[in-house]
Backbone:
């Protein structure tokens, strides 16, 4: 078996042409966000798999599709490869006429040049064509993008591309719609606010603005001794780290010496980034001396996994997000700041952590814990000895919380089971208070204690969690 990193056109050409000569086996490539697997028999490619869909329309020209995929890889030839030197059962799209690796790379190089000239005119290969005349040639491309045009034509890919270019120049073909690609460029990282002292802002107004503007990303509050991360998706806060931070008290009386930064990220990746802080990794800090990251990346792409690959390098932590096997984001956090990265070359030595996607929302649990402590405060005023002993006996059943300095605290990030337990404990305490203090009196005192948090609860839509707890 051979595997490794590909960093430029020459490396890609050497892997495809040099490695496959006379060999039998399977070559897997993850280049420019594309996955391609080619089955080789005695140096000839007999079948392939790629993550460009075969369109489910008419008969697909598989040779054209294979060349197109390689040509797209040539536009940014960086990634990983693995070659398995053994015969495999058919799993891909069979080529009617097996083809040699030299021919593949020559054709892909020619196609890359043709594609560059066309994309200069249409901006994106995913632009949808429309015919502006009744020319029969132009009519064939109506409603298709470049990939569909070459894959659904039985003509050679080079002739198809040159015909499209001529029709565009002659004005017989135009574009009328842009569609997003599954392989679009990495989303940008936008710092809407960076290092702004909290004494200069109104915390509640900031929270309201994040909600009204459907903010997705991280609101980071930093001081020399702590950092609080608030994770947002489409204007809704869904998680807080660290979990033992009493954020409601903090919002009510912010630390004026702390600073606020707002990192705008696409909603599709925020929960992946949050896993770094709130989830236990499936692979935890394994040295690059003992793990081959190329095989890991190829596996995530091949098996279409949702995952966060965290590479800890000297420069900082690198976040690589995969959604259904597609690379969505590659960014580095260095000195507390996120920056997009355009390379998959990692600096030795580095350490690898892997998080398969799982839910990390914890705001409901934090709300329940806050309310538990507020109810406890009422009990301590009314009937401290009897009530507290009953509650402490009940709370000891839950090992993920601890009691100190008159409050309960989380000792781990709560999952769905812990969330249910906290809701059950809150319900138990409210029922106990109704019996011992009286429902009306308990509600009156709780309302008085919670009055300062009214605006915060409203902007964070906290009532939806409390309604469930009371229900």
Residues:
């Amino acid at each position: 078996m051979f595997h490794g990193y590909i960093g430029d056109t020459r490396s890609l050409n050497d892997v495809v042409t040099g490695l496959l000569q006379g060999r039998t086996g399977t070559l897997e490539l993850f280049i420019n966000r594309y996955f391609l697997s080619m089955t080789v028999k005695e140096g000839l490619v007999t079948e392939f798999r790629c993550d460009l869909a075969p369109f489910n329309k008419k008969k697909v020209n598989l040779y054209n599709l294979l060349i197109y995929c390689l040509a797209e890889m040539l536009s940014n030839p960086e990634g990983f490869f693995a070659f398995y030197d053994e015969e495999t059962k058919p799993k891909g799209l069979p080529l009617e006429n097996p083809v040699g690796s030299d021919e593949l790379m020559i054709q892909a190089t020619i196609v890359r040049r043709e594609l560059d000239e066309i994309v200069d005119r249409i901006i994106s290969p995913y632009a949808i064509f429309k015919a502006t005349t009744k020319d029969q040639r132009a009519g064939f491309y109506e409603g298709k993008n470049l990939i569909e045009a070459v894959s659904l034509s039985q003509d050679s890919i080079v002739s198809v591309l040159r015909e499209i270019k001529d029709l565009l120049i002659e004005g017989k073909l135009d574009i009328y719609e842009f569609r997003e690609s599954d392989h679009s460029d990495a989303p940008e990282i936008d710092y809407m606010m960076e290092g702004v002292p909290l004494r200069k802002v109104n915390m509640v107004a900031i929270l309201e603005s994040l909600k009204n503007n459907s903010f997705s990303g991280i609101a980071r509050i930093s001081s020399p001794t702590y950092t609080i991360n608030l994770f947002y998706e489409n204007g809704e806060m869904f998680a807080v780290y660290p979990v033992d931070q009493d954020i409601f008290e903090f919002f009510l009386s912010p630390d004026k010496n702390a600073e606020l930064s707002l990192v705008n990220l696409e909603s599709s990746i925020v929960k992946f980034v949050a896993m770094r802080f709130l989830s236990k990794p499936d692979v935890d800090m394994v040295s690059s001396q003992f793990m081959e990251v190329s095989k890991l990346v190829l596996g995530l792409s091949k098996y279409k996994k949702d995952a966060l690959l965290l590479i800890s390098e000297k420069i900082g932590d690198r976040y690589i997000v995969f959604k259904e096997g597609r690379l969505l984001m590659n960014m580095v956090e260095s000195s507390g700041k996120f920056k997009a990265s355009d390379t998959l070359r990692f600096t030795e030595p580095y350490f690898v952590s892997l998080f398969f996607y799982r839910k990390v929302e914890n705001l409901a649990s934090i709300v329940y814990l806050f309310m538990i402590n507020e109810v406890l405060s009422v009990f301590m005023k009314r009937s401290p000895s009897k009530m507290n002993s009953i509650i402490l006996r009940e709370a000891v059943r839950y090992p993920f919380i601890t009691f100190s300095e008159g409050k309960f605290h989380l000792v781990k990030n709560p999952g769905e089971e812990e969330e249910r337990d906290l809701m059950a404990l809150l319900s138990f305490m409210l029922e106990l208070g109704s019996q011992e203090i009286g429902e009306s009196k308990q509600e009156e005192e709780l309302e008085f204690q919670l009055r300062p948090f009214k605006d915060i609860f409203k902007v964070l839509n906290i009532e939806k969690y409390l309604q469930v707890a009371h229900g």
Summary: Residues 416-450 form the longest helix (35 residues). DSSP finds 15 helices and 21 strands in the chain. The longest strand covers residues 326-334.
